[in-house]
Amino acid sequence: MSGSSTAIDFRVIDEILEKYEYKKSYLIAMLQAVQEVYRYLPEDAMTYIGEKVDDLSPATVYGVATFYAQFSLEPKGKYEIKVCDGTACHVRGSMPVLNAIRNKLKLEEGKLTSDDGLFSLETVSCLGACGLAPVVMINEKVHPQMTSDAISIIIDTLLSEERGQ
To answer: pTM value?
Structure first.
């Protein structure tokens, strides 16, 4: 497990566990709730859940968290950017879009989250919108027929909204 630097409020974790009655059958829902709070699954939170829920262990919690792609063991940004690199998107130019995002956010290969913690970037095999290729999804919003210039404008808009808050 990777080390976590996030301070965990165990009262929040206890509230989540209480909501799910400390039942191991609700483990995935518990992990989803924790990830919603912290934007990832901190190691300390997983260990705590494994110790507090009957018939669970920290290793079991970690195993479930690493099995499902929806869970992240690393902090994610406020804006989760997914670039589709399926066949349709790839042939229609998803790689230049991906590279434009990396350049704009100063994300080298292997670095997934921007220094300011606002943006996370990942490539996915398919977003199910092949007719709109190339597609980028930011949080739950699909951005069709993306270009390097268009994604740059979208990121600039999000950044200016953040500064205005």
So the answer is: 0.72
